[in-house]
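Consortium newsletter contribution from the modelling node. Members have asked for a concrete example of what our holo predictions look like. Here is one, prepared for the iron/sulfur cluster complex that several groups have been discussing at recent meetings.
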Amino acid sequence: MERHVNMKDISDGRKYYRNDLAKLGCGDCAGCSACCHKVGDSIVLDPWDIFMLASHLNCSFQALLEGNRVALGVVDGLILPHMQIENEEVGCSFLNEEGRCGIHAFRPGMCRLFPLGRLYEDGGFSYFLQTEECHVRKRSKVKISKWLGIPDLEQYEEYINRWHYFCKGIQENARDMEEDVLKNCNMYVLQDFFVAPYENKDFYVQFEARLARAKAVLGMA
Ligand code: SF4
Ligand code: SF4
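And here is the predicted structure:
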């Protein structure tokens, strides 16, 4: 989800990259799970997130929806899934009895990022540090690649970038689309990137095939 804010108001003004150190270490969250409670529908999920959830939980996208783990929302005209937080006091349904993330090893990309954000510009992105989001005031420096804990991070970042600009291409045109054209576009994206199951092998190869097909079908360059 794109936010239009002044970076000076929410960050330390720096741009970070995967090998940089940033003040992220919060003592392993030590009893705090604030990030998993009052977040509304802001944890928007991308195809990699669904691939990870479905393959590790051995279930379908449909089952995630029916089990109220995930819900659908509209982001700038585009229908995308997000983590379902039905009750903000209870928090995310993946929190375990100890108040820890029960799916830590395969948690979504946005959960991994926090309190980092992504700053998209000039066809790429950097990271920025949201200075007021985490309650821990004295945070230690951690390398961003370690914080994210994503194997093949360079490849993941390339994928994130390609997914972002694909979505942005639709979102920028959504306002001017005929209602049924936008509906068909949304149905296509939902079906081909989320509902249609991914095989339990290289995600990025499967994503690229779907992206190329979607661009051809939707007439995108
Ligand atoms: S998936 Fe894990 S880290 Fe993300 S909101 Fe849910 S409990 Fe928190
Ligand atoms: S606010 Fe900070 S300490 Fe609390 S859960 Fe979020 S990252 Fe962890």
